[in-house]
Structures are given as C-alpha cells and as structure tokens.
Specification:
Elements: E1 18-20, E2 27-29, E3 82-85, H1 99-108, H2 117-121, E4 125-127, E5 143-150, E6 170-178, E7 185-189, E8 195-198, E9 201-204, E10 210-213, E11 216-220, H3 232-243, E12 249-253, H4 255-264, E13 268-272, E14 276-277, E15 285-286, E16 289-294, H5 296-303, H6 313-331, H7 334-337, H8 340-352, E17 355-357, H9 363-373, E18 381-385, E19 388-390, E20 402-404, H10 406-417, H11 424-436, H12 438-447, E21 459-464, H13 471-482, E22 487-493, E23 502-505, H14 510-520, E24 527-529, E25 540-544, E26 569-571
Parallel strand pairs: 4-17, 5-12, 7-18, 21-22, 21-25, 23-24
Antiparallel strand pairs: 1-2, 3-16, 5-6, 6-7, 8-11, 9-10, 12-17, 13-16, 14-15, 18-26, 19-20, 23-25
C-alpha cells in the first residue's frame, strides 16, 4: 500500500493474500506461486524485508511477497478520500492519526499470530532517543507512552495542512498512562500552544555521535519536536519537566497516517450535532448527522479548527479524543479481531505510518507491549486535557498561546503520578475495595499505639524506591547521626519502585516499627506487617517512595481521589456528537 491511499496500482494489499484452506478450516497466508492457483509471480513491496510469515494457526514456508498486476483495482474498490452518510445501524469503525497506532497496540496481543514479523519490521521507523525516558516499560509498573502526531507536510495532497516550511512540530500529543494493574488508562492531551520550558536535549546524529541541543525557556510546547533538530526524545524530556511523569516510550505518525489508516479500516464513523463548512482551513464540508470518513476527509476532520466549538486548538483536541474513543471501541470489537483481512490491512497501514523509539523498535517488542494493554476495557479509559489558561502576557483579542492552570493541573497530575484511575467505573470499584480494607487499616492504626523501642535497638535497611536521587544514603545517615539509629544501613536502590513510602516489619519488630514511624512521620498506611516473626538481629525494610522529600520532612500528601469538577473528561466507551 502507498502512504497516500490504499489502492495504488503497482502494489497489493497483503491482507488479500489470506486464503481459507478447506481442509483445515483455517486462513493461511499464500505469498508465492501455486501451481494449482496459477498466480502470477512478482516482487516484494517497497521497504519490506522478505516476510517470515506464520500461518494462522500453524507455520508455513516464507516465500517472497507477490506483486500485483498493473491496473488492478484497490482492495475494496475505493480510491482517495470520501464520506458516506450512515444511519444508526451501520457497523462502526473509527480511526485517528495517533489513535490508529495506539489501538493497534490495544488489540495486537490477541491476534499476534497474524503478524508476519520480518515484513512489518521493515515498515517501522526507529529512533534512538539518547537516554530520554526510562529505557523500557516494566511488567510490574505503570506504563507511560507518548503518542505524537506531527504536522510535517509529507506525502501528496498534504500541502494545505500544517506550516508550509515546517520540519514538523509536536502538533497532537497524548500521554497515555496505563495503570500498574493494567485495568485502566488515562489519555492526557497536551495543548500544542502551551508555553513550556524545553530542557537541554541530547540527540543522536546520523554518524552515531550525540549532539546536545541547548534548552529553550518560555516557548510553545509543539517546538519540542523538529525545531533546531529536536527529535521525539526532546518531546519526552519536555513532558517529564512539565508533568513530573517519566515517559517509557514514544509512538509518532504524520498526516499520512490518518488517510492510510482510516481507509484501511473502511472509514471512520463521526457524528455532527450541526453542519460544518470550514472554508478557511481544512475545507471540511459536512451536513449534520452521522458520516463515515476516510482518506482526505478523515484528515480534514481531525485537522479542522473552524468547524467546532470556539475555533480553537482546545476544541480540536476534544474532536480528536472523540475519534480516538470511537476507534478504540471498533478495534476491540469481535468483527475486527476475527477478520484476518481487516487486521492485516490495519497492521500494514499502522506500521508504515509508525515511528517509535528503539525500546519498542520491532514488531516483537510492540507485541510484548500490546500484551500488557490488551485487557483494558474501553469503559476504563478516560480522555482528559492538561488544564490551561489564556496567556496573561498577551493582549486581549490577540491571544495565541496558553499557560498551565496550576490550580487544576496539579491535582490531575498527582492522580496520574499516583496511578489513580479517572474512570467513574473504576472509582466505584475502588470505593468498594477501600470499604473492604477499612478494618485492616483500623488494625494498622492500632499498631502505632504501644511501646516503642530505644533508637539504639532499631535495625533497618533503607532503600530508594522512587524518592529523590541519593535518598537512601541521606536518610540512613540522618537516622544514625540525628536520631541515634546506629543500626540503619543504606542498601541503595530498591529492586522495584513503589507507589509510596513503606516500612515492612515482622510482628515481633512492632516496637521498632513504632519508633521508626514516629521519627520518620510515617502514617499507618505506610506500615506493612508480615505474618511471621523475624529472627534475632533481622533488620526491617524501609523503602522510600515518590512521596518522600527529605529526612525530617513530612511525606507528600497522597494523590487526590477525585478531579476538580472543571477538568475536562471524556470516556472511551461513550459516543459523542461533535458540536
């Protein structure tokens, strides 16, 4: 397939090469000549490595990918971009520039048998982000993926979008946070016109060297990508400085992704509460009601700023979130999961449109990531936007940028950093769990009441599980010198990060735990008592979490459990008409 449309004459959709074997009842990928079928033999598509293609479900040889006959019609008989007005009974399929790649991950784990790895690996564009982020997601920790849509004018038909001479900005940016228990996720949109500080950014050069781009203060967020040679790693670093959340991986796509992916799934269903006629920008023209968009019109829909709300980028973000939610619902549907043709078309389009960091720079690694995300129900995915205000430094009537609304943003970011779900369904389940834990907490509170051991008798190993750098060292010294706990030892970094500071101890160490809790200002919720007594001279285990600031200071307040009412939210399982 071509990046601009699904039906280029000299290429063939690999999804059309899945054939039902009547003897086995399974679909098999037929990529070479067959004497029985007498199919013409042709060469592989551009950029593709010779495929190593597993059949569904058993393996088969991997001959070269055939080339179609010139003049063959595009798969499905469609060319270019168009819309079809649909009624309420139409089958829903949806897509968005960054959403297609994200939804591809959400379902890929359950259909990994259909991915012919080497061929799709050849489609990916991989960037070494020079140490930005964590270096890779971990199975027992939350996952943070930065999804970036650029406004780079690549590909035919994209001349009217974005900035004419731009190398590409971070035009659409979504921080996708997946909970530690993999039951829920938060998609945080970051406005492109947000005034931000871009930190110094090491970038890998073509010759393998590293060049550090100097920091820039007080500039638009979208310039964290492309400008002055910045790559996606610079955007990852900017997001960490802005939100306090470290990113594990990035995924990036440009304008062509919207057109290619929307066509691959057969069109995007959208609902309009009123007619749209954007003559100034995207030239989108649609009647009120439901439509199915693909190609150019799908791109125009997600790019328009003059058709909805108050014609601002913030309202365009809401439209894109509605697209993404609809796309996720369709991608998780049985129809998509059980169709080899549909899924392979999407896999082909998604990987050709996708740029990633080297930590997930292969189909195998993407499939591992997909396995972590595939169980998330759309009812537990919440979209929200980082709260902002008009820039007070700009005159009235000429507002072009925004600044962070700290009063609303900080509670939201605390919830994400604390891995608290924003979803109403999850909140109800969490409330039930908290009620069930009430008795246990009461028992823990009682543990703090009683005799306390002398400081000289307290034995504790101190670990850093998410606190500031060097916390274990400074805390153990503080306990020794300031509090007289001579048996405090610095054990360095914990094997895994923790969500909050915790003290683990045995029942026969309760007097030591009470003494240490009083010195450190630990609450009952930080006390984790074991079931069996410890041997003599066994130390307790104190792990400092992200709520730890410095020895002698109270721990940071726990993340709030509810958002301020003025923070915008939308649920992925609910369809909304654009206004």
């Amino acid at each position: 397939m071509d990046a601009q449309s699904r039906g280029r004459a000299e290429e063939i959709d690999p999804a059309d090469q899945w054939v039902l074997n009547p003897r086995t009842g399974h679909y098999e990928l037929r990529l070479a000549d067959s004497a029985a079928q007498q199919r013409p033999k042709v060469s592989a598509p551009r950029r593709a490595a010779a495929p190593s293609a597993p059949t569904a479900p058993s393996p088969s040889p991997s001959p070269s990918v055939p080339k179609p006959r010139r003049g063959d019609p595009p798969p499905g008989g469609r060319r270019g971009g168009r819309s079809r007005k649909i009624g309420g009974g139409g089958r829903k399929k949806a897509l968005i520039i960054t959403g297609g790649t994200l939804a591809f991950l959400l379902v890929a784990g359950s259909v990994g048998a259909y991915l012919y790895y080497e061929h799709l690996n050849g489609n990916l564009s991989v960037t070494d982000v020079a140490g930005a982020g964590t270096g890779g997601f971990k199975k027992d920790q939350p996952i943070n993926i930065l999804v970036i849509g650029t406004d780079k004018r690549t590909g035919a038909g994209n001349e009217s979008y974005g900035d004419k001479d731009s190398v590409g900005h971070a035009d659409t940016t979504i921080l996708f946070h997946v909970s530690k228990d993999r039951t829920n996720a938060t998609a945080l949109s970051i406005p492109r016109d947000l005034i931000s500080n871009i930190p110094a950014c090491p970038t890998k050069q073509p010759d393998g060297s590293t060049k550090t781009i100097p920091p820039t203060k007080g500039t638009r967020f979208n310039t964290s990508l492309g400008q002055e040679g910045r790559d996606a790693g610079c955007t990852m670093r900017t997001v960490k400085e802005l939100t306090g959340i470290e990113v594990d991986h990035f995924m990036m796509a440009d304008f062509n992704a919207v057109k290619t992916l929307s066509t691959a799934v057969g069109g995007v269903p959208v609902c309009l509460a009123k007619p749209v006629n954007d003559e100034e920008g995207s030239h989108l023209k649609l009647d009120a009601g439901e439509h199915r968009l693909e190609g150019e019109q799908a791109l125009a829909f997600v790019r328009t700023r003059h058709g909805f709300g108050n014609n601002s980028d913030l309202d365009r973000i809401k439209i894109q979130q509605q697209f993404l939610g609809s796309m996720m619902r369709e991608m998780k549907s049985k129809e998509t999961l059980t169709s080899p043709k549909k899924f392979l078309s999407l896999a082909e389009a998604a990987t050709k449109s996708l740029g990633v960091d080297s930590g997930i720079g292969s189909i195998g690694k993407l499939t591992d990531l997909a396995g972590e995300l595939k169980g998330i129900d759309t009812k537990n995915i919440t979209f929200t936007t980082l709260p902002v205000l008009d820039n007070p430094a700009e005159p009235e009537g000429k507002k072009a940028t925004v600044v962070l609304d700290k009063a609303l943003a900080e509670p939201l970011l605390q919830m994400i950093r604390g891995d608290v779900s924003l979803t109403e369904v999850e909140k109800k389940e969490q409330a039930a769990k908290e009620a069930a834990d009430a008795d246990a907490k009461a028992k823990q509170d009682a543990l703090l009441q009683g005799n306390k051991a002398p400081a000289a008798d307290v034995r504790v190993n101190v670990y850093n599980g998410g606190g500031p750098s060097g916390s274990a060292s400074t805390t153990s010294k503080w306990l020794q010198i300031t509090k007289g706990v001579s048996k405090a030892s610095n054990l360095g970094n914990a094997p895994a990060k923790v969500g909050a500071t915790q003290l683990e101890y045995a029942p026969n160490q309760a007097d030591q735990a009470r003494a240490l809790a009083e010195m450190m200002g630990l609450s009952a919720s930080a006390m984790k008592i074991g079931t069996a007594d410890a041997a003599a001279k066994t130390p307790m285990k104190l792990t400092l979490g992200p709520d730890f600031q410095q020895p002698g200071s109270p721990l940071a307040a726990p993340a709030p459990q509810e958002l301020p009412k003025d923070v915008q939210q939308a649920q992925a399982d609910k369809a909304v008409c654009a206004k």
